[in-house]
Amino acid sequence: MFSETLVGVSTVRAYGAQQRFIEENQARVDTNARCFYYMYAANRWFGVRTALIGGTVILCAALATVSLGILTWTLQFGDYLVWIVRVQAALEMNLNAVERVDEYSEIEQERPAVIESNRPPANWPQRGAITMSNLEMRYSPDQEPVLHNVSFSVKGGEKVGIVGRTGAGKSSLSLSLFRIVEPSNGSIKIDGIDISTIGLYDLRSKITMIPQVSFFFHDRPVLFQGTIRSNLDPFEEFQDSELWACLRDIKFWESMQTADTANASAAVELSEDTLLPTAPISGSLEASVAEGGTNFSQGQRQLLCLARAMLKRSVLTVFDEATASVDNETDANIQRVIRGPAFEDTTLLSIVHRLRTIADYDKVLVLDKGRVMQFGTPAALMQEDGIFKTCIKIESHFHNYKSV
Ligand SMILES: Nc1ncnc2c1ncn2[C@@H]1O[C@H](COP(=O)(O)OP(=O)(O)OP(=O)(O)O)[C@@H](O)[C@H]1O
Question: Which chain regions cross the lipid bilayer (predicted)?
Answer without folding.
Answer: 51-75
